[in-house]
Amino acid sequence: xxxxxxxxxxxxxxxxxxxxxxxxxxxxxxxxxxxxxxxxxxxxxxxxxxxxxxxxxxxxxxxxxxxxxxxxxxxxxxxxxxxxxxxxxxxxxxxxxxxxxxxxxxxxxxxxxxxxxxxxxxxxxxxxxxxxxxxxxxxxxxxxxxxxxxxxxxxxxxxxxxxxxxxxxxxxxxxxxxxxxxxxxxxxxxxxxxxxxxxxxxxxxxxxxxxxxxxxxxxxxxxxxxxxxxxxxxxxxxxxxxxxxxxxxxxxxxxxxxxxxxxxxxxxxxxxxxxxxxxxxxxxxxxxxx
Length: 290
Known about the structure:
- The chain is α/β, with parallel strands linked by helices.
- The protein contains 13 helices and nine strands.
């Protein structure tokens, strides 16, 4: 069993860290909002620290799942950051959905101090985190990945190295691009079914077994029909992710016309007050503005 630090205890990070503690690892947690760390320790055991530096001290692995590039820099190379407490041969695994640019930057900073660094964003949402069934997309060095992968197994169903530093973040961008188009198509289809006077649930039951079937259809189709959006992955988070996709496409020349359009649709949802609604709330643009 390993001595592990976990930084960031949101709806994803909290249960992911919990799986590590339940697997028998010695986990010390840090969260910017202290009461979340206190609640986590009450639920799972383990220890808590008051800074990322103190959490990372004497640990074999340090994991992070925070909000964005700036948050990630703060907990790694900022004042009281984790990197300052990590020794040669230790490994930092970042589950934040962030830019490939910051992944490469921190990989280089870690490498200079003989610290391993893996960018490892995840897919599967809150349910996947709670059930230990996340898909983990990784970038970094093969030998570092091979050391980290058995630890990541505690909360994942799939963990794959996709390439050098930044490849995990780029793969997560592909994931979000694909989701955006699928959710918009599903919203339009369900709204069409309602307008046509069809039984939406019956339609879902039939088409989900054919070529139109998807994870979004299986998990969000019925709730879209019920006008339920108070769960899952928030619109604010999706807009952050799509913004990174569009910025990266400007650099690599990829055409993302549908992604850009759906990003604007999510902007409309935000204007409706749906910042924290689930991403399936694209349906609201079609139903609540009738």
